[in-house]
Design brief:
The structure is a single chain. By secondary structure, the chain is of the alpha/beta class. It is built from 15 helices and ten strands. It has a four-stranded mixed sheet. Strands 7-6-5-8 form a four-stranded mixed sheet. The longest helix has 18 residues.
């Protein structure tokens, strides 16, 4: 496997020697590999990240778990508390509570209010939130507000009512930003997409049937499958009240471009114009995916580091799963840290076939 974005991190390796473990202790590195170290002269065991004074290497023993250290007669450090929740877990739980506060708030709490709830300074809270969630508190709140709006638009008497229910303080500000945030007009969403005009076509490639759907702004859906009728029904279910027209002639160029990503020459340029909506975090992930070169792969952890959110590999995986346009956003090029393939909304076998084909064609160039 060729990883295109960066060298493997500590998250991607297995510690096989005490020298490697000692290197993590020296660097106070959170490697994700479970072990503790004990100091024979003090009788205390610690996490690798403990901020205590560094012991002499000759006085250090390593254990795979805290229970092994206890069985050997060592007691837990009072500073790093290796017998309790890990700092990473505690921080994740804290940020999760803050996210629930944002979700429940009618209006976005200020950064100072959120930081006070977390018991931190605004600066450290902002940095921790972004590292953990992948976006800033404000970007998270905007995404959640957008989700509430999309849910409430079809249920509200007016668009304005839905905007205020979702937490917009000003109708003018809402209308100024809504179309760019939602991907279609608020009234179209409230009407279940009734005013949205979507043209679609179905073609065939070596992976089976391929459906492409587009608005006047760009491609909004690319689906792969074995049954053309199932793809057609799936598109209508996704946009139940939009005006969907199947027009092979109008989508001929788009179909040809998508098929070229599968069966065309290696390195076929992926410059298909898209019209898709997603959270700020998803958009960052999708942009990073489009930068993975043909014939190469990246891990979820590498993508997380690329977008500046190294602790958000799971969120990256969710953004990949939410990708609405197969191939144009090549989420099939993202793999697990050990190089194996994971899930793919268009079928794991298609993902394996795509990766093998791209790798072989790239090698034969």
């Amino acid at each position: 496997m060729m990883n295109s974005l960066s060298l493997p991190s500590a998250d991607d390796r297995v510690l096989t020697s005490d020298d490697e473990r000692w290197a993590d202790v020296t660097a106070r590195n959170i490697s994700g590999v479970p072990f503790v170290y004990a100091v024979t002269t003090t009788g205390i065991y610690c996490r690798p990240t403990c901020a205590s004074r560094r012991p002499l290497r000759a006085n250090v023993r390593f254990f795979a778990s805290k229970s092994e250290a206890v069985a050997a007669g060592f007691r837990a450090c009072l500073r790093c508390r290796p017998d309790g929740e890990s700092p990473v877990s505690e921080r994740s739980q804290l940020i999760d509570r803050v996210c629930r506060t944002i979700d429940a708030a009618e209006t976005l709490p200020s950064l100072e209010e959120l930081a006070a709830e977390a018991g931190m300074s605004p600066y450290h809270f902002h940095r921790l939130f972004r590292t953990t969630v992948g976006v800033t508190p404000r970007a998270y709140a905007v995404a959640r507000r957008r989700a509430r709006l999309q849910w409430s638009l079809p249920l509200s008497a007016t668009v304005t009512d839905a905007a205020y229910d979702a937490g917009y303080n000003s109708s003018s500000r809402f209308y100024a930003n809504a179309t760019g945030e939602l991907g279609m007009s608020p009234r179209a969403i409230r009407a279940g997409g009734a005013n949205a005009e979507i043209r679609a076509a179905i073609g065939t490639c070596s992976l089976g049937a391929v459906l492409v759907a587009a608005t006047e702004r760009g491609v909004c859906a690319i689906d792969l499958g074995d049954d053309a009728e199932a793809l057609r029904a799936g598109l209508i279910a996704r946009f139940p009240r939009a005006s969907v027209t199947f027009d092979d002639a109008a989508l001929e160029r788009h179909i040809a471009n998508v098929i070229a990503l599968v069966d065309g020459p290696p390195g076929e340029r992926n410059d298909i114009a898209l019209d898709i909506a997603g959270t700020a975090f998803s958009q960052r992930v999708w942009a990073a995916l489009r930068e993975i070169p043909y014939g190469q792969t990246a891990t979820y952890s590498e993508i997380a580091r690329t977008i500046g959110a190294p602790g958000s590999a799971r969120a990256v995986a969710r953004a990949c799963a939410a990708n609405p346009v197969a191939l144009a956003i090549p989420c099939h090029r993202v793999v697990r840290n050990d190089g194996t393939t994971s899930g793919y909304r268009w079928g794991p076998q298609r993902k394996r076939d795509l990766l093998q084909r791209e790798s072989e064609r790239k090698r034969d160039q």
